[in-house]
Amino acid sequence: MHTSPSSSQHILSTTPPCGLTSDRDQLDPSKPEPNAGERALVLGGGGSTGNAWLIGVVAGLFDAGLDVTEADLIIGTSAGSTAAAQITGARPTEQLAAIISSAAPQTRPRPAGSVPGAEPVRLTTDHLERLRATIAAADDVADLRRRMGAALEADPASNSAAQTGWRATVAARLPDQQWPQQSLFITAVDARTGDPVVFDRTSGVELVDAVAASCAGGFAYGIGHGRYIDGGYRSNADNADLAAGYARVLVLSPLGGRSLHPLEWGTHLATQVDELRAQGSTVETIFPDSTSEPMLGANAMNVALRPPAARAGYDQGRARAGQLFEFWR
After folding, report:
1. What are the angstrom distances between the C-alpha of 49 and each of 17, 107, 115?
2. What is the rounded CA–CA span in Å between residue 111 and residue 123?
């Protein structure tokens, strides 16, 4: 697998490079200084269709005259990390056009009597069942991260050949493989310690690797000597708490802020939004509407639904733009 330069590999084998921090570090970007900036955009996770919906919403806002890609900080988790890298590397309308014009990849012939799209749904269901079982056994979110890290590092998909293929897949999705100049946080979790991790352009980690790690929902992705799992395991699929200190925070959540975590863990998006507001931030959220929702969640990995999910997101973005002008500007 192609990795970061050897100096970064050496640092990763001992301590995180500058900018790659955990909750134990004094410079943890999940606890920024008050008044860290004006505008933060949070792009949550939600699988393949969630990514398409996010691109659609941002493109709809853009076409209506509201460019949220100019945020002072963009936070991307899982599918949201891919969307964040895409909208900072090319116009959101270009990304939308690419989704709508793309054909679903060819698949092997299905057995007679099989249901189109059933395999992605089954894989999603299997993953959710494993996640629910792990949550039920965990004491708290930190214990959940450790348990998921141990389980996913042992998954066969964590082998080097599979990782090379995954990196190539992620790289093909990014219009620009360089970190943008604006602040971009990509979330992940250290598979071996369970510690939350935030990658940015100072981390000594290539953007492709950061996104590949953040999207590693079913296996552990290797960067140097480290192994990382999906950023959605950090606290929830949105990680809006990383926007603390920003005056205005816009959260786009493909999963509608839902969480499988027990409420007492304090990781739900609603809890994070309340905390941001208590700290002085103005927060707005966009959740999938009745048109978008059936294409997300259980159908999140059905690539055939990406074009309609993107269109539905676009319509939502266009419809919400007028309400958000004063808030964002």
Report:
1. 33, 18, 19
2. 17
211-221 pLDDT per residue, tens: 999 999 889 99
Strand-pair partners of 40:
73, 249
- What is the DSSP pairing of strand 221-223 with strand 226-230? antiparallel
Q: At what angle do helices 79-89 and 207-214 cross, to 10 degrees?
A: 150
Please answer whether residues 249 and 276 qualify as being in contact, where contact means their C-beta atoms are separated by less than 8 angstroms. yes
Contact (CB, 8 A) for 163 and 3: no
Q: Which residues contact 36 (CB under 8 A, 6 or more apart)?
A: 73, 244, 245, 246
- How far is C-alpha 172 from the geometric centre of its chain's CA atoms? 17
Distances in Å between the alpha carbon of 78 and those of 48, 187, 253? 10, 8, 12
pLDDT at residue 158 in the model: 75
Residue 146 is predicted with a pLDDT of 96
